[in-house]
Amino acid sequence: MRKLVEKLIEKKKTVATMESCTGGGVSNAITNIEGASEILKYSAVTYSNEYKMKMGVSSEVIDKYSVYSRECSDEMSKNISLFAGSDYGIGITGKLNRVDINNPYGEDNVVFISIYEKENNKFYNEKIEATLGSRAENKELVINKIIEMMEDILK
Q: 124-140: per-residue pLDDT in tens?
């Protein structure tokens, strides 16, 4: 994460996050690095459908594709970027080691990551299986994938 934060500072680029299953893990990892305030514009943990919608995810997307979908992560990443005025928005949604009784649709142990690049109005997506032992290990897996994705985008 240190290299990523340094690269964002060097390029004068900013990020904002809307996280669900990672519970703020990405923004926590960013803020553990000195200088993070130069690149992190805003972070929201939207565990519930209600707050995803309050942050701009349309109920139609949730109803049609489920809260656990690429389409939902795309809405999360774009809306948080627009809300915060950041160069990149990161949206994460998925199920980690549990069934969600409020959202019975969507694959178990699958996480959808979307990174929105405002300058080019472009989405970068990954769907990863979160099948490691603990929630903490799966969160770390997701965070590492986001670092990898952002490093590729910033090349």
A: 999 999 888 888 999 99
